[in-house]
Here is the input.
Amino acid sequence: MKSSHPYSLLQILPYLGKWTLIAGLVALASGTASALFLWALDWATASRTTHYWLIWLLPLAGWVVSWVYLKVGTQVEAGNNLLIDEIHDPRKVVPLRMAPLVLLATVISHLFGASVGREGTAVQMGGSLADQLTHLFRLRQEERRIVLMAGISAGFASVFGTPLAGAIFALEVLAIGRLRYDAIFPCMLSAILADQIGMAWGIHHSHYAAGAIVALGPWSLLAVLLAGLVFGLTAWLFASAVHALTALLKRLIPYAPLRALAGGVVLVLAVAALGQRYTGLGIPVMLEAFAHPLPWWDSAGKLVFTLVSLGSGYKGGEVTPLFFIGATLGNALAPLLNLPFGMLAALGFVAVFAGAANTPLASTVMAIELFGPQIGPYAALACVMAYLCSGHRGIYKAQTVAVHKHRIGPPDGQP
Amino acid sequence: MKSSHPYSLLQILPYLGKWTLIAGLVALASGTASALFLWALDWATASRTTHYWLIWLLPLAGWVVSWVYLKVGTQVEAGNNLLIDEIHDPRKVVPLRMAPLVLLATVISHLFGASVGREGTAVQMGGSLADQLTHLFRLRQEERRIVLMAGISAGFASVFGTPLAGAIFALEVLAIGRLRYDAIFPCMLSAILADQIGMAWGIHHSHYAAGAIVALGPWSLLAVLLAGLVFGLTAWLFASAVHALTALLKRLIPYAPLRALAGGVVLVLAVAALGQRYTGLGIPVMLEAFAHPLPWWDSAGKLVFTLVSLGSGYKGGEVTPLFFIGATLGNALAPLLNLPFGMLAALGFVAVFAGAANTPLASTVMAIELFGPQIGPYAALACVMAYLCSGHRGIYKAQTVAVHKHRIGPPDGQP
Here is the structure.
């Protein structure tokens, strides 16, 4: 057959063999690291819940972690952004130390009650472990991009138990408005395997029950579009505020350990006033958001706790707090929009994340993986709407803008 | 907040209002057209099944349809490829006559027993109806791209009852290896609304029950990768053969009506020898493929009937025959791979299509919409594998190659 790109099966077999092996190794390392991490996170959360006084040590813990990063972690401090930068412009292998540093730092964040997530940790462990294969397989810089993406994919998939969302996340997060397929096979395979390996280590994921999803109709569609707009603005507020607060604190308190100490003190005072509702991952509150009405300020409370935690340098990530903010916000919007709590909590869960990370397809697929296919059309509308309304600067500063979200320009010849 | 792309909510409200209205109109036109088409298709199929002798008139029907296209349809003859070309390089509005011509031609194909599909028809009706809004809204050429994509999305979604797959298909089909998000909102909204409008007209979609999906494990994953490879090679064979046969017949018989007549005669002779198993959409055989073992030659038979039908110019489309070929091939592979019939039929259903249309994400999402989320990881692997192994020239000749499937090059600065 004549074709502008001649094709033969022989060409593809070495590609398939090599990347199946690499994806398997990435999944083994990343799935195992995620399992260890989730186990440690359970331990840290349980310890904090039974030893209330641990929260008083948060400022000190923040100081120590920041000091350690200052001494041995400046190269890996940029975290997720370092990985995204290396994928855009591959230069040198990500230091292996990123994995243990972010693991320990995040477990300490959670043990002492900072309000942070876990996707950053899983993604950074996945990325840095995967990148160590660069030497083993003598990979070219172009191939390193693919390995790093497979690592991100495996980390995300195994920490949340959502393999397809993990793979699409890794493809989608690099740039706003465009998704390339060159890493689709390694990302899919490593995500699915890493999720299996995590579960083989005995990891269980939280189960959120969205409950009844109402039939599609004019009102429910309009209501979900409106909710998506609110979710998008919340995502914009979160991403803008976290960048602004981080910059402000860096200017006010240039010495990182002191910054973490100050942030810790603010958090401790806030906990003294409001209790532990907004510390840590907050999974119990998220479960509540699917079950019964919650006060509207739960999302605001979590937003402020998370801003202070991330802005003052605590490690972990943004995504689980975004799930919390979205689920509680959806819960609060449900009576206003006359839709079930569980359904809107589920939509908020994925859509605030979609807007903040600029990953509408991964978030839609995540909704289907977590809540079932019936929520699909609603999740797609809420996530796309949130994506459109969240501006062009998400939580990942290294993410580039490939295609403007809502200014329609001429086709660039590369549709 | 400072940002390289300044953002304000006011900027986006006119965009949202305009495209919500356009997506609604596209969905109304396309969903209604699909409903009419599916109703006519049911009538045509039922008529053929009760009046066996209609098949003898196929060559004559082919002559008449080709003659009509020659007289009034040369501008719209290119069908799906015309739409894709206009999206890549918008020039002039697609003539409205594309819609009634392809509708009638496809119903005639099915009434007299050609082996063709229906997605081409739905997509062409959706695209040409949508493009008529260009005048009404005084759209710029760049905006026409988006309207055409929304039309494709709405047509695909409403004819198969798979809204998310329809939207992703429209974004994904334009170029191999890259997906742009500039049409994501109009495509999602028009797909979901068109599907609803089709159902409001009383349309029902065939339900295929994949049955038990085995738990993920080393063997099942490896088996599905192998099956994906076979599905991809089948897709490659189909796409290559349809282009080659079309070119050959054009050279041998330059006069289009005579070509259709000759193809019709071959099909009639084949039906006389083998019966009607491979004519029309073939939904009863597809349902069998999910239920019990079928002979391996069912997929080969359908492939040959479809090649002759499409190669000699019968209208309809490739996708439903690809579903048939994939489902029966999956069925035949099931005992060899020691996996359930229904599961492999479901995977073949989507994966041969994924390989031939180069739309692995739309096909994976379609699998979840049709067969439930449990099949997700398997469908993703089978579809991605089929995509990798199907070469760079799919069924749509106007599709461009944006990113090579398995040759890893330097990042192009536009990840």
About this structure: Chain B touches chain A through 84 residues (CB under 8 Å).
